[in-house]
Amino acid sequence: MRFVGQISTEKLIPTAFFLPIASPTATQSNGLMNLVYIGGLFLAAAVLSLGVGLIDAARRLERWQTYPGGTENGHLSSNCTGGYPQ
């Protein structure tokens, strides 16, 4: 969702500012201005998804470091389980 939101946001918001007045005789913007709101929703969803992913990664790292044998003085242990209990 993060990448879809980022790509769609960077396309939708500028499009919403330039296309509504593309006609030289336009005196006011048309309905394409609503693309700004859609782009904003995509941006909010992408930021929320990124935040949840970062919190999840921090919790996983914290759990991984607290396993017995997971780290020894900040370094990986020499066992073959990758630090996870068998």
Please give a structural write-up.
With 86 residues, this protein is mostly helical. It has a domain of 55 residues. Helix content is 57%, strand content 5%. It has 2 helices and 2 strands. A two-stranded antiparallel ribbon has the order 1-2. The chain is rod-shaped and about 70 Å long. The model has no long low-confidence stretch (mean pLDDT 75).
Features:
86 residues, mainly alpha, two-stranded antiparallel ribbon, 2 helices, 2 strands, 5% strand
SSE order and pairing:
Blueprint: H1 2-18, H2 35-66, E1 71-72, E2 75-76
Antiparallel strand pairs: 1-2
Report the portion of residues in β strands: under 5%
Please provide the ordered H/E string of secondary-structure elements.
Answer: HHEE
The percent of residues in helical segments reads 55-70%
Task: Give the radius of gyration.
Answer: 23 Å
**Average of per-residue pLDDT values:** 75
- Principal-axes shape call: rod-shaped
Q: Separation of termini?
A: 33 Å
Unreliably modeled segments: none
* Class per helix and strand makeup: mainly alpha
How many helical elements? Answer: 2
Looking at how many chains there are and whether they match, the oligomeric state comes to single chain
Report the count of strand segments.
Answer: 2
**Strand order in the largest sheet:** 1-2
Task: Describe the largest sheet.
Answer: 2 strands, antiparallel
